[in-house]
Every structure is written in structure tokens, then in C-alpha cells.
Write a structure and sequence with these properties.
- There is one protein chain.
- β4 and β5 form a beta hairpin.
- The N and C termini lie close together (9 Å).
- Helices cover 17% and strands 46% of the residues.
- The chain contains two helices and seven strands.
- It is of the alpha+beta class.
- Strands 1, 2, 3, 4, 5, 6 and 7 form a seven-stranded mixed sheet that branches.
- The radius of gyration is 17 Å and the shape is elongated.
- It has one domain: 2-Layer Sandwich (STM4215-like).
């Protein structure tokens, strides 16, 4: 099979669709999406790095992608809100994420992203700028797919 230039878009669109359906009641943005966060006290941001694609001699491809959900909440309303939001973000990190050909309508499934090692990493950053009182945390995991 030859390289398909649509793979990065199909993977990105499938990740977004998967996480938007698992966000609970929280607002979810994609990194780079225009937004007015000054109107929100709590929200999630979806980011990913990759896909990093390996070519094997048999003309097969393997891709890996790092997915990250950033969590933002304002200090003072609920001391456990950041933990509740981190927990909801973790819901989206399932063992597999179906990847579809994304066109005008949902297309054929081309495979599944598979969680590598089964580990979800959480990092707490606390308040990075004391003047805005925004707590930040991330949930991250690495996935792979054979194409």
C-alpha cells in the first residue's frame, strides 16, 4: 500500500470526534481553534503531536501520535473542580480510538488507534500566572495505528 496523504487529516478528525463525544458537560476546544476563553472559567483543550509515521520494507506503515487534553479552571469556586475535569478528560482516553476516512459524511473505518502501554499521564501545573488565577493540568497518552 502506498502512503495516503489523507491519513493525518483522517487521524486528526477522528481524534477530535472521539474526544468531543467524551467531554461530558465541559467546553472542549482544539488547539488553534478561535475562541473567547475570557468568557469561560473552565474548559478543556485538545492537542496532539504527530502522526509520526514509520515505513517498513514491506510497504506497510505504522503511525504514533501523542494526545493531550489540557485542563483549565479558575481558582476559588470548587477546590476539587480541576480533579473532576481531569477525571472527565481521562474518559476520552480509551484503549482504542476508531479512525475513519473523514469526508462530507463519516466514511469507512481504516483502523484503530491503540493505547501504548495503557498508561495515562497527568501533570499538574498549578497557577502559572498569579494575575489570572487559572489552574492548569494535562492528561496525556501515546497511541499507535498500523496503516
Amino acid at each position: 500500500m502506498s502512503f495516503n496523504s489523507n491519513w493525518p487529516r483522517w487521524i486528526a478528525g477522528s481524534i477530535y470526534k472521539h474526544f468531543i463525544t467524551n467531554k461530558g458537560s465541559y467546553t472542549l476546544f482544539v488547539e488553534g481553534q478561535e475562541r473567547k476563553t475570557n468568557l469561560l472559567s473552565d474548559f478543556l483543550e485538545l492537542q496532539w503531536d504527530g502522526p509520526d509515521i514509520d515505513l517498513y520494507p514491506s510497504d506497510e506503515y505504522n503511525a504514533e501520535i501523542e494526545i493531550c487534553v489540557r485542563v483549565f479552571t479558575t481558582i476559588g469556586r470548587d477546590i476539587y473542580l480541576i480533579d473532576k475535569m481531569v477525571g472527565q478528560a481521562m474518559v476520552g482516553f480509551t484503549k482504542t480510538i476508531p479512525v475513519y476516512e473523514i469526508e462530507d459524511s463519516p466514511g469507512t473505518q481504516i483502523g484503530c488507534l491503540q493505547l501504548i502501554s495503557g498508561t495515562l499521564r497527568t501533570h499538574r501545573y498549578g497557577v502559572e500566572r498569579p494575575d489570572n488565577k487559572i489552574l492548569q493540568s494535562t492528561v496525556e497518552a501515546r497511541y499507535k495505528i498500523d496503516l
